[in-house]
Specification:
Helix content is about 40%, strand content about 10%. It is of the alpha/beta class and about 650 residues long. The strands form three sheets. A seven-stranded mixed β-sheet has the order 2-1-3-4-5-6-7, sandwiched between helices. Strands 8-9-10-11-12-13 form a six-stranded parallel β-sheet. A two-stranded antiparallel ribbon has the order 14-15. It is globular, with a radius of gyration of 25 Å. About 45% of the residues are buried. The N terminus is likely disordered. It binds cobalamin (B12) and iron/sulfur cluster. Iron/sulfur cluster binds next to loops.
Amino acid sequence: MPLDTLHRVTAMPTVVTRVLSVIPPMTQLNTPYPSTAYLTGFLRSRNVDAVQADLALALILKLLSTDGLAAVRECIAALPAPQRTPRVATFDAQFDRYAATIEPAIAFLQGRDSTLMHRIAGRSFLPEGPRFAALDEYIDPDGGDPMAWAFGALGTHDRARHLATLYLNDIADVLRDAVDPRFEFVRYAESLAQSQPTFEPLAQALAAPHNLVDRTLHTLTLEALALHKPTVVLVSVPFPGAVYAAFRIAQAIKAHDASIVTVLGGGFVNTELRELTEPRVFDHFDFVTLDAGERPLLALLEHVAGKRSANRLVRTYLRTSLGTHVGEVRYVNFPEPDVPFDDVGTPTWDGLPLARYLSLLDMLNPMHRLWSDGRWNKLTVAQGCYWKKCSFCDVSLDYISRYETTTAAMLVDRIEAIVAETGQTGFHFVDEAAPPKMLKALAEELLKRRVSISWWGNIRFEKSFTPALCQLLADSGCIAISGGLEVASDRLLALMKKGVSVDQVARVTRGFADAGILVHAYLMYGFPTQTVQDTVDALEYVRQLFEAGCIHSGFFHRFACTVHSPVGREPAAYGVTLLPLPPVSFAKNDVGFVDPTGVDHDALGVALKKAIYNYMHGLALDEDVRRWFKGAGLHAAVPRTRVVRQHIERALRSR
Ligand code: B12
Ligand code: SF4
């Protein structure tokens, strides 16, 4: 079909455009995911009437209410006996206590009723289900309070928050068993979307009758439409775990009023839907856009207003015939430059219920604690990554490869505006790897203007982070940084083009630690050609880094090969062979591979995770790392590490 025909079938002239941006369930509960804040701020800067809603938070607050729990109990009553799992039975038996405590517990986690901490911490207020058994697993080796050992010196408030989080986790388990097996607080029905080559599983799920979660989301969607009366709804899916609900929202909108224009975008789309050809997606969404949303949206809003033809849309998929399951999917990308980073405006949280987010205390890991606890304003220091070389990373995608900065003055203007609007001074810089030069300039500008904030974010452990710069960053409010040490092996770091060495990471992290900044290391295992010996050596380096006080926290992730990364694009250069993918009409991201080393990385991963858990408690730091691999299902004996015991200490001395 020629593109000018597209114009006739898709142009939808609307008199006044009102744009509603929506965060679908689930992303996170402690603070809004920032995409709607960015898009709303940008659209308002261009005089578009724009509003936003967080349906993820709204859904949780509805389900976790007295009425919500009563509805869950009705579902339980309708369950056949074999489906009444022990946790469902425990909930049912203690239902009156759950119903009486849910709203106070939520108010406490929202920070609206802090004195309740005493009753919660006393452990006689909240009913306790199976999740509380985890408390018995914390054993203080010195015989002290196990919770204090596991979570550091917890005050009453934190202790109560942890107990209240276990209580909510119990309820989430009941929801999973009795209502919807796909339900989780931070991801929902993720497997229906993640690397799903066809739309079929999602289509089947969307055709199924509503369960309680679907029904609640449907009602909330209609309430948002009634409140905001949008003509265009932008649905943002950052992760696969937000996709199913995004489609349910669009389905509800279209059933209510098919003339409302629905648009899908966000990190998941930018990553996984780059080869979209499935027409059924467009039963729910009129348009799907790729990459940074600003330019495609300006074009799309002009198109919707009848002022631009469809063949001049930017990075946009659409279906060539509306209202049917058939029709072809077209990708239109009229060449227009992106809106410069300088010009994207200031995100706004206006319209989001900032006082109603939940500060959960789930994990021992101090960095995870920052992720799930507290209300953080989110801001990007630069667009993209200045390094863009790491071979495991999606460097071919726009959100990594297009690097643009702005001035420190502009960033601090944005920070000041956000603090004035939200009244909150905590910032999470959501860059993939914030550039050191910009961070330095930003710190100087913050200090110059005497703007007091706390901030944290992700960086590369590169040598321009000198001890002096680390101190400057700390002075400007930096409380924590995370960065990739990845495989902790110089051979593999070179192969993955990380551009850092283990010794350099030691020196840089020590500089941060000395400045009083919490350091979290992203660690990786299972990279192509990684041997058992490499893994044992990596753990020895990590042990020494903890022992030397360079890092305080870490997490071992299993390497996953994606089609957008250099490994996925040139597997032979990394000594691996890709497994063939089925034909793709929907999502494409992860790809299986065969590594001739044949190492059982799953077994090693268990050992690595156990080790790091102990190191974070300062335990077993003087012991031979081979102890963690015992019983890890290795056929041969675990090799002794080749790393000398004082390696990191010497690297630090040579600083
Ligand atoms: C910071 C970050 C995190 C942080 C904070 C997450 C949070 N909840 O705030 C942490 C470390 C906790 C994290 C965790 C995870 N993350 Co993360 N994260 C990021 C990162 C680096 C930045 C996110 C961000 O805030 N961006 C700023 C916002 C404004 O950008 P944006 O959402 O993309 O929005 C822009 C455009 O997409 C577009 N847009 C967005 N929505 C819409 C809607 C419409 C209609 C339109 C037109 C346009 C549009 O316009 C916006 C402005 O330009 C991104 C990569 C990236 N550079 O974006 C990965 C990314 C989103 N994460 C990803 C993943 C997979 C995860 C995890 C699932 C990892 C895991 N396995 O646990 C978890 C999920 C956690 C959760 N449930 O909250 C993937 C998602 C890809 C995919 N396959 O779907 C990404 C893309 C990175 C990657 N390739 O791995 N993440
Ligand atoms: S892993 Fe980080 S530093 Fe490396 S290219 Fe990706 S975003 Fe940049």
